User: Fold this.
Amino acid sequence: MARSIPKARDGSLHQHTAGGTSLDPIMIGTAAWYSWLEQHRSFCFEAGRMTFTARKEQRPGGPLLVCVPTQPWQAAHCLPR
Assistant:
């Protein structure tokens, strides 16, 4: 099965195992959310008709977009759905 990037939508992070099984959603803004961000590099954000992939990345001059305090996250793709 192809790798599925976790999706943040409706206030929760939704992810699947390699076998396609859904894991329990993680509520955005909780301790579990910040713990998840520490351990992962990317997720897809969906809101209405807009979607983008956020990716954690170190840059010499700093991040392009800071989505999480003290974390260097940037928007990689911005496309209408």
